[in-house]
Amino acid sequence: MKSILIKQCFLFLFFIFSNLTPCQTSISDEELIGKGQPHFFGKDHKLRKEAHNAFLKMKAEALKEGIKIGFVSSYRSFSHQKRIWERKFNRNKSSGLTDEENIKKIIEYSTIPGTSRHHWGTDIDIIDLNVKQPKRLLQANNYHGNGSFCKLKNWMDKNAKRFGFYLVYTNNANRKGFKYEPWHYSYKPLSGLYLKKYNSITISKLLQNEQLSGNKSFTKTFIEAYINEHILDINPELL
What we know:
Elements: H1 2-18, H2 22-25, H3 29-32, H4 49-63, E1 69-73, H5 78-94, H6 99-106, E2 123-128, H7 150-159, E3 165-167, E4 184-187, H8 188-198, H9 203-209, H10 220-231
Antiparallel strand pairs: 1-2, 2-4, 3-4
Helix pairs in contact: 5-6
Protein backbone atom coordinates (compact mmCIF):
# COMPACT_ATOMS: atom_id res chain seq x y z
CA MET A 1 0.00 0.00 0.00
CA LYS A 2 2.81 2.37 0.95
CA SER A 3 4.68 1.69 -2.29
CA ILE A 4 1.50 2.41 -4.29
CA LEU A 5 1.04 5.77 -2.55
CA ILE A 6 4.68 6.70 -3.19
CA LYS A 7 4.30 5.78 -6.86
CA GLN A 8 1.12 7.85 -7.14
CA CYS A 9 2.83 10.88 -5.54
CA PHE A 10 5.76 10.51 -7.93
CA LEU A 11 3.45 10.36 -10.94
CA PHE A 12 1.55 13.42 -9.71
CA LEU A 13 4.74 15.48 -9.30
CA PHE A 14 5.98 14.32 -12.70
CA PHE A 15 2.72 15.45 -14.27
CA ILE A 16 2.92 18.89 -12.62
CA PHE A 17 6.50 19.64 -13.60
CA SER A 18 6.25 18.17 -17.10
CA ASN A 19 3.28 20.44 -17.83
CA LEU A 20 4.92 23.70 -16.80
CA THR A 21 5.16 26.03 -19.75
CA PRO A 22 8.57 27.41 -20.84
CA CYS A 23 7.64 30.89 -19.63
CA GLN A 24 7.13 29.51 -16.14
CA THR A 25 10.50 27.79 -15.91
CA SER A 26 12.99 29.73 -17.99
CA ILE A 27 13.67 32.73 -20.19
CA SER A 28 16.66 33.11 -22.51
CA ASP A 29 19.13 35.98 -22.38
CA GLU A 30 17.88 37.08 -25.80
CA GLU A 31 14.33 37.29 -24.47
CA LEU A 32 15.48 39.24 -21.43
CA ILE A 33 16.76 42.02 -23.69
CA GLY A 34 13.80 41.98 -26.06
CA LYS A 35 15.43 40.09 -28.93
CA GLY A 36 13.90 36.65 -28.57
CA GLN A 37 10.79 35.19 -30.18
CA PRO A 38 8.59 34.24 -27.19
CA HIS A 39 4.95 33.24 -27.51
CA PHE A 40 2.59 35.85 -26.11
CA PHE A 41 -1.11 35.91 -25.33
CA GLY A 42 -3.72 38.66 -25.74
CA LYS A 43 -5.57 40.52 -28.46
CA ASP A 44 -4.95 44.12 -27.41
CA HIS A 45 -1.75 43.29 -25.53
CA LYS A 46 1.16 40.86 -25.44
CA LEU A 47 1.87 39.06 -22.17
CA ARG A 48 3.29 35.75 -21.02
CA LYS A 49 0.58 33.16 -20.56
CA GLU A 50 0.60 33.24 -16.76
CA ALA A 51 0.57 37.05 -16.64
CA HIS A 52 -2.14 37.15 -19.32
CA ASN A 53 -4.42 34.80 -17.38
CA ALA A 54 -3.93 36.78 -14.16
CA PHE A 55 -4.68 40.01 -15.99
CA LEU A 56 -7.95 38.66 -17.42
CA LYS A 57 -9.10 37.73 -13.91
CA MET A 58 -8.15 41.17 -12.60
CA LYS A 59 -9.84 42.90 -15.53
CA ALA A 60 -13.06 40.95 -14.93
CA GLU A 61 -13.12 41.94 -11.25
CA ALA A 62 -12.46 45.62 -12.04
CA LEU A 63 -15.27 45.63 -14.59
CA LYS A 64 -17.72 44.75 -11.81
CA GLU A 65 -16.87 48.19 -10.36
CA GLY A 66 -17.36 49.94 -13.68
CA ILE A 67 -13.63 50.07 -14.47
CA LYS A 68 -12.51 48.79 -17.88
CA ILE A 69 -8.76 48.28 -17.73
CA GLY A 70 -7.08 49.02 -21.04
CA PHE A 71 -3.49 48.88 -22.26
CA VAL A 72 -1.23 51.61 -23.48
CA SER A 73 1.74 49.26 -23.52
CA SER A 74 2.68 45.70 -22.61
CA TYR A 75 5.50 43.80 -24.35
CA ARG A 76 7.99 45.90 -26.27
CA SER A 77 10.79 44.42 -28.36
CA PHE A 78 14.35 45.72 -28.42
CA SER A 79 13.76 47.31 -31.83
CA HIS A 80 10.59 49.04 -30.55
CA GLN A 81 12.44 50.43 -27.55
CA LYS A 82 15.28 51.52 -29.83
CA ARG A 83 12.88 53.50 -32.00
CA ILE A 84 11.62 55.30 -28.88
CA TRP A 85 15.20 56.00 -27.80
CA GLU A 86 16.34 57.33 -31.17
CA ARG A 87 13.24 59.52 -31.60
CA LYS A 88 13.70 61.14 -28.21
CA PHE A 89 17.47 61.47 -28.61
CA ASN A 90 17.17 63.23 -31.98
CA ARG A 91 14.42 65.52 -30.70
CA ASN A 92 16.43 66.52 -27.65
CA LYS A 93 19.58 66.97 -29.71
CA SER A 94 17.81 69.43 -31.98
CA SER A 95 17.07 71.48 -28.85
CA GLY A 96 20.79 71.86 -28.22
CA LEU A 97 21.26 69.34 -25.40
CA THR A 98 24.63 67.64 -25.00
CA ASP A 99 24.71 63.84 -25.16
CA GLU A 100 24.94 63.61 -21.37
CA GLU A 101 22.03 66.02 -20.87
CA ASN A 102 20.07 64.23 -23.55
CA ILE A 103 20.45 60.80 -21.94
CA LYS A 104 19.65 62.16 -18.49
CA LYS A 105 16.40 63.63 -19.83
CA ILE A 106 15.37 60.47 -21.67
CA ILE A 107 15.90 58.16 -18.70
CA GLU A 108 13.54 60.14 -16.53
CA TYR A 109 10.81 57.91 -18.01
CA SER A 110 12.24 55.82 -20.86
CA THR A 111 14.70 52.95 -20.59
CA ILE A 112 17.78 52.29 -22.66
CA PRO A 113 16.97 49.54 -25.22
CA GLY A 114 17.82 46.13 -23.78
CA THR A 115 17.12 47.23 -20.21
CA SER A 116 13.34 47.62 -20.25
CA ARG A 117 11.06 45.50 -18.07
CA HIS A 118 8.61 45.64 -20.98
CA HIS A 119 10.95 43.25 -22.83
CA TRP A 120 9.79 40.42 -20.56
CA GLY A 121 6.07 40.29 -21.30
CA THR A 122 5.28 40.73 -17.62
CA ASP A 123 4.72 44.49 -17.34
CA ILE A 124 1.80 46.69 -18.34
CA ASP A 125 0.94 50.39 -18.65
CA ILE A 126 -2.78 50.75 -17.99
CA ILE A 127 -5.66 53.21 -18.27
CA ASP A 128 -9.43 53.10 -17.72
CA LEU A 129 -11.36 52.86 -20.98
CA ASN A 130 -14.71 53.62 -19.32
CA VAL A 131 -13.95 57.31 -18.82
CA LYS A 132 -13.31 60.29 -21.07
CA GLN A 133 -9.73 60.01 -22.23
CA PRO A 134 -7.38 62.95 -21.47
CA LYS A 135 -5.22 64.32 -24.28
CA ARG A 136 -2.05 62.92 -22.73
CA LEU A 137 -2.73 59.53 -21.19
CA LEU A 138 0.30 58.59 -19.12
CA GLN A 139 0.53 61.60 -16.82
CA ALA A 140 0.66 61.21 -13.02
CA ASN A 141 -2.04 63.84 -12.46
CA ASN A 142 -4.52 61.67 -14.41
CA TYR A 143 -4.33 59.07 -11.64
CA HIS A 144 -4.87 61.35 -8.64
CA GLY A 145 -7.33 63.91 -7.33
CA ASN A 146 -9.92 64.62 -10.00
CA GLY A 147 -7.89 62.89 -12.71
CA SER A 148 -9.62 60.67 -15.26
CA PHE A 149 -8.00 57.49 -13.96
CA CYS A 150 -8.14 58.09 -10.20
CA LYS A 151 -10.89 55.47 -9.77
CA LEU A 152 -8.70 52.95 -11.56
CA LYS A 153 -5.73 53.87 -9.37
CA ASN A 154 -7.73 53.54 -6.15
CA TRP A 155 -9.03 50.14 -7.24
CA MET A 156 -5.55 48.92 -8.19
CA ASP A 157 -4.14 50.10 -4.85
CA LYS A 158 -6.67 47.89 -3.07
CA ASN A 159 -6.79 44.88 -5.38
CA ALA A 160 -3.83 44.55 -7.79
CA LYS A 161 -1.65 42.46 -5.47
CA ARG A 162 -4.39 39.82 -5.17
CA PHE A 163 -3.75 39.06 -8.83
CA GLY A 164 0.05 39.27 -8.62
CA PHE A 165 0.45 42.81 -10.02
CA TYR A 166 2.61 45.39 -8.26
CA LEU A 167 3.40 49.03 -9.01
CA VAL A 168 7.00 49.27 -10.22
CA TYR A 169 8.04 52.92 -9.92
CA THR A 170 6.50 54.24 -6.72
CA ASN A 171 6.23 57.82 -5.46
CA ASN A 172 8.69 57.17 -2.61
CA ALA A 173 10.62 60.42 -2.26
CA ASN A 174 13.83 58.52 -1.47
CA ARG A 175 13.68 56.40 -4.61
CA LYS A 176 16.02 57.26 -7.48
CA GLY A 177 15.88 56.27 -11.14
CA PHE A 178 12.73 56.54 -13.21
CA LYS A 179 10.11 58.99 -12.06
CA TYR A 180 6.84 57.95 -10.48
CA GLU A 181 4.62 55.96 -12.87
CA PRO A 182 1.17 55.20 -11.37
CA TRP A 183 0.24 53.36 -14.59
CA HIS A 184 3.07 50.79 -14.68
CA TYR A 185 2.40 47.40 -13.05
CA SER A 186 4.40 44.19 -13.10
CA TYR A 187 3.32 40.57 -12.68
CA LYS A 188 5.59 39.61 -9.81
CA PRO A 189 5.47 35.77 -9.99
CA LEU A 190 7.34 35.96 -13.31
CA SER A 191 9.10 39.33 -13.32
CA GLY A 192 10.73 38.63 -9.94
CA LEU A 193 12.41 35.56 -11.42
CA TYR A 194 13.34 37.37 -14.63
CA LEU A 195 14.92 40.28 -12.76
CA LYS A 196 17.18 37.88 -10.83
CA LYS A 197 18.34 36.30 -14.08
CA TYR A 198 18.70 39.69 -15.75
CA ASN A 199 21.17 40.71 -13.04
CA SER A 200 23.54 38.02 -14.33
CA ILE A 201 23.82 39.68 -17.74
CA THR A 202 26.83 41.90 -18.43
CA ILE A 203 24.85 45.02 -19.23
CA SER A 204 27.94 47.12 -19.97
CA LYS A 205 28.88 44.79 -22.82
CA LEU A 206 25.33 44.82 -24.14
CA LEU A 207 25.15 48.62 -24.25
CA GLN A 208 28.58 49.07 -25.77
CA ASN A 209 27.86 46.60 -28.58
CA GLU A 210 24.59 48.21 -29.63
CA GLN A 211 24.57 51.09 -32.09
CA LEU A 212 22.60 53.52 -29.95
CA SER A 213 22.79 57.29 -30.17
CA GLY A 214 24.83 58.61 -27.27
CA ASN A 215 26.42 55.26 -26.41
CA LYS A 216 29.85 56.87 -26.07
CA SER A 217 28.52 58.34 -22.85
CA PHE A 218 27.78 54.87 -21.45
CA THR A 219 30.86 54.88 -19.23
CA LYS A 220 31.48 52.36 -16.46
CA THR A 221 30.41 54.91 -13.87
CA PHE A 222 27.23 55.74 -15.80
CA ILE A 223 26.28 52.08 -16.27
CA GLU A 224 26.84 51.22 -12.60
CA ALA A 225 24.66 54.14 -11.54
CA TYR A 226 22.00 53.26 -14.13
CA ILE A 227 21.77 49.68 -12.90
CA ASN A 228 21.53 50.68 -9.24
CA GLU A 229 19.10 53.55 -9.75
CA HIS A 230 16.97 52.63 -12.77
CA ILE A 231 16.90 48.84 -12.76
CA LEU A 232 17.15 48.02 -9.05
CA ASP A 233 15.70 51.05 -7.26
CA ILE A 234 12.11 49.98 -7.72
CA ASN A 235 9.25 48.91 -5.49
CA PRO A 236 11.11 46.71 -2.94
CA GLU A 237 8.26 44.19 -3.08
CA LEU A 238 9.41 43.32 -6.60
CA LEU A 239 13.01 42.59 -5.64
